[in-house]
Amino acid sequence: MAIAKAERLMNLALCLLGTRRPLSKRELRESIEAYVEAFGPGRGTAPGPDRSAPASDDSFNRMFERDKDDLRELGLVIETVESLDGEVGYLARRDSNRLPPITLDAEEAAALGLAAKVWQQARLAGAASGALQKLRAAGLPEDVDPYEAHSALEPRIPVHEAAFEPLMLACRDRRPVLFDYRKASAARPEPRHVEPWALECWRGHWYLAGFDRDRGAERVFRLSRITGKVRSRGARFTAPVPDVVTVRETVASWAGEIADRSARIRLRSGSGYPLRAKATAVRELGDGWDELDIPYGHGLDAWLVEFGPDVVVLEPAELRADVVDRLRAVAKG
User: Residue 64: what pLDDT?
Assistant: First the structure.
């Protein structure tokens, strides 16, 4: 059985690498002998003389999806292309599946080994282990232990959001996605059509950077605010993917981390410790209130809303107006 599967995967890989145009599932089913023997010809093709009837399309689709996922796990870059008539096809371009020789010294190998220990999820742990095996096959010295020098370190990057894995695969395969997203200032989620670029963990939270089709601009989404399932769309990207995606810098600017002004607020005594930690000046006013000067950057209004009645914005006027508008939107539900 293992030999038969390996042969089937090899034939599928050769078929995808050898084509100059995307091949549909029906064409692949009719071109690979293992599929024909197991399920018969595809819909619309008469079965052979030694077959009474073809097997169900559902069984073939399940096997094909598993085979496609196995090839991608092995490192084959398979593109999904939708034609003008809506038919989905697959191909593996040779220029996307050709890598230069890999040479690593002991320090580089140790860094990659340490990175491989980070992932705790079963799917990613298997991928990391397989990557190390491929590096050894590419010339990584057998006497280099990527873990030995850092055995005292136990890095962790937790991933609790269900949206992480489908978004990770969509980033890898360059597939647009659709999901429902609830902004911090909104009472209900709304659908977002996104071309995903990159995922990054920052300060214990995962973020997705990509092109928001509805808004026609780059956006960053916090995975914990994605509700429901992430649905893939069989279409190409409409916007170019930047060479460098600065997720952390973008999140920092939206969270008010990058500030060029100062805001003055009143804060109830004994509350708002994250705000106090960022304050450049704190003055006691009495009657249970303090006055703070805090850095003012894009997104500060959304952060201040989270403290509810414990915060009163004194200046600037535009920040006060933004906070009031957000509170009114939440109150309306």
Answer: 92
Closest by CA to 320, choosing from 263, 262, 259, is 263
Contact present, 32 and 11 (Cβ < 8 Å): yes
Helix, strand, or coil (residue 87) = coil
Partners of 289 in beta bridges: 268, 286
How many Cβ atoms from other residues are within 10 Å of residue 8's Cβ? 19
Structure tokens at 77: 């870059």
Q: State the number of CA atoms in the 13 A half-sphere of 127 facing the CB.
A: 17
> According to the 3-state scheme, what is the secondary structure of 163-178?
CHHHHHHHHHHCCCEE
Other CB atoms within a 10 A radius of the CB of residue 39 amount to 20
Look at residue 133 in the predicted model and tell me its pLDDT.
63
ω into 191 cis (within 30 of 0): no
**CA–CA distance, 145 with 81 (Å, rounded to integer):** 41
pLDDT of residue 154: 54
226-232 and 289-297 beta bridge pairing? unpaired
Q: Which amino acid is at 147?
A: Y
